[in-house]
Write a sequence for this structure.
């Protein structure tokens, strides 16, 4: 099997086994995988998609984004709007025209920006388009002004924070503080059914695999070589006649679109989307996943997202009050001991070729 | 016709006049050495020509009538002006061949590089440049693994790959061994057969080895100009630079 297919095949294989054990074994059986675990695995894979998106910009072109969860959350909201419309008259207020929270706020008409969201296809397109459009507008100004390094990181953090505050407002029309939840079904299939959850897990694995292969093709192209060149010596690329801002913008928009896809799949499996998804800490956690897995290696990003979230699940159940300390210690430990992340431990050809040296330490020094 | 004409160029940084009404003329096919003590404005002059720094006053005319002060770095690079930095700047995570591939003249737009495949023509151009800069055996090594002198040559090779009309070379022999310095002088003379070159250098032995017209900068303006023997006998030059 070609090396490039190893990661997607592994992810898909595990997803199929988990889904199969969930559906095909008796609930009391030793091999049974609970629906909770199936949803959890689906959630991890969505985070892995976000990690891939972040690694594309941070690992390959050196843009440290501390606001990438914003694109993820926007994708989630777009899909959440469709899921809200799917509830129809089954809501608490039994209003077929308006989602519950709008009835509660005393609204009479659906805001214009909700039009079309009763179609899955519209929501799916918007989950990609809205993050991409925001990224384009943001990147167009930021990269042209040659804002980079720590300054850009701070602005991205401000971006996600501003979005969080905006989405907290009831009159934005996205459910305010409570966000959107109580979803019933997707494309007519009940979201709470085991079969739907299992299918969503496998679909997420397939999407992750597709995104992984696309990202691999991107970074393997001459375009990708220019990205790494910009990361290592931006001024040099300019004097060679490249426009780094154009390259950054393209990969930044692609990355935001990928994050949006992750968010859309996430909301279906988690069953709720609210403004806390925009919390700055979420974006910072995503940076830690990538750092732990190995910045500048795509499979490292996937591995990091899954492992750190697995650890988080275990930790927050066993020692809830110590999780943040654990996460902080993990970040410091990786920075000091494994600057190339876990992927660095297995460094062979491709890793050594593309991984930046002293990834995180270098970023701090800039 | 001149290739490059700096006309009364002044640049100030926070009140410090890095360039003070600097004027300089470079003929097509010429190689010029620019020397001067630290702070004389050599690197600022390079920055102005390549679009990194915009002058407060003055014009920089390239070729017929292109005013470089209106253009940014990529646009100036596309016109055919290549620059080598003082500190060797290569893409360390790329192989030697990939460094040259990225430097090869061609369409730089993202929509092109997304689909670009390496052509046989590109491959043969890379081979030719590798031979010129004596790096053929290092083709597939990472640039990071090269010695300091080899990095300097790789960067010169990248300039050649750009196929520029004018090369600006900032201290090419800094940190090189004597043998490497000699080879670099030969390499630059070789390059000068087909292209114009401006070399900024501290190393007087190297400038002498180049055997070209010398411009001495001091406090942002031309102090003296002529052959190396002429300028080294100029009492003003002796006073500010050579005499110390």
């Amino acid at each position: 099997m070609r090396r490039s297919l190893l990661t997607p095949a592994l992810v898909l294989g595990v997803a199929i086994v988990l889904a199969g054990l969930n559906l095909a074994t008796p609930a009391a059986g030793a091999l049974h995988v609970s629906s909770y675990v199936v949803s959890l695995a689906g959630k991890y894979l969505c985070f892995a998609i976000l990690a891939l998106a972040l690694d594309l910009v941070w690992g390959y072109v050196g843009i440290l984004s501390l606001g990438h969860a914003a694109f993820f959350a926007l994708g989630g909201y777009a899909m959440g709007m469709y899921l809200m419309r799917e509830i129809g008259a089954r809501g608490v207020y039994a209003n077929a025209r308006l989602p519950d929270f709008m009835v509660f706020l005393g609204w009479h008409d659906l805001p214009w920006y909700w039009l079309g969201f009763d179609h899955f296809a519209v929501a799916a397109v918007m989950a990609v388009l809205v993050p991409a459009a925001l990224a384009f507008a943001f990147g167009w100004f930021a990269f042209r002004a040659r804002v980079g390094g720590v300054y850009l990181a701070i602005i991205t953090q401000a971006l996600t924070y501003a979005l969080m505050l905006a989405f907290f407002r009831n009159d934005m029309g996205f459910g305010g503080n409570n966000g959107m939840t109580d979803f019933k079904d997707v494309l007519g299939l009940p979201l709470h059914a085991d079969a739907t959850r299992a299918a969503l897990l496998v679909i997420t694995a397939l999407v992750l695999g597709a995104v992984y292969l696309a990202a691999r093709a991107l970074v393997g192209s001459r375009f990708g070589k220019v990205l790494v060149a910009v990361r290592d010596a931006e001024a040099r690329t300019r004097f060679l006649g490249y426009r780094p801002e154009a390259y950054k913008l393209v990969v930044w928009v692609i990355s935001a679109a990928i994050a949006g896809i992750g968010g859309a799949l996430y909301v279906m499996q988690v069953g709720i989307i609210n403004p806390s998804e925009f919390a700055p800490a979420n974006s910072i956690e995503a940076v830690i996943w990538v750092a732990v897995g190995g910045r500048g290696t795509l499979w490292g990003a996937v591995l990091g997202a899954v492992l750190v979230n697995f650890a988080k699940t275990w930790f927050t159940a066993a020692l809830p009050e110590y999780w943040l300390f654990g996460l902080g210690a993990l970040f410091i430990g990786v920075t000091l001991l494994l600057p190339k992340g876990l992927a660095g431990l297995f460094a062979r050809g491709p890793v050594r070729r593309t991984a930046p040296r002293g990834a995180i330490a270098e970023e701090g020094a800039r | 016709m001149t290739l490059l004409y700096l006309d009364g160029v002044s640049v100030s940084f926070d009140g410090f006049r890095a360039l003070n009404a600097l004027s300089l003329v470079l003929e097509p096919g010429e190689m010029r050495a620019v020397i001067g003590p630290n702070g004389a404005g050599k690197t600022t002059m390079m920055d102005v020509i390549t679009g990194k720094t915009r002058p407060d006053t003055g014009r920089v005319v390239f070729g017929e009538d292109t005013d470089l002060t209106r253009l940014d770095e990529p646009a100036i690079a596309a016109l055919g002006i290549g620059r080598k930095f003082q500190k060797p700047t290569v893409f360390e995570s790329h192989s030697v061949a990939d460094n040259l591939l990225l430097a090869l003249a061609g369409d730089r737009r993202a929509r092109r590089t997304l689909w670009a495949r390496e052509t046989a023509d590109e491959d043969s151009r890379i081979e030719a440049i590798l031979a010129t800069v004596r790096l053929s055996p290092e083709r597939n090594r990472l640039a990071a693994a090269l010695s300091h002198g080899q990095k300097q040559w790789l960067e010169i090779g990248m300039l050649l790959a750009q196929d520029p009309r004018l090369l600006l070379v900032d201290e090419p022999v800094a940190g090189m061994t004597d043998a490497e310095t000699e080879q670099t002088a030969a390499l630059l003379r070789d390059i000068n057969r087909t292209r114009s070159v401006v070399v900024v250098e501290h190393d007087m032995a190297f400038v002498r080895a180049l055997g070209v017209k010398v411009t001495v900068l001091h406090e942002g303006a031309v102090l003296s100009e002529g052959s190396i023997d002429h300028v080294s006998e100029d009492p003003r030059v002796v006073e500010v630079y050579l005499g110390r």
Observations:
- The mean pLDDT of chain B is 91.
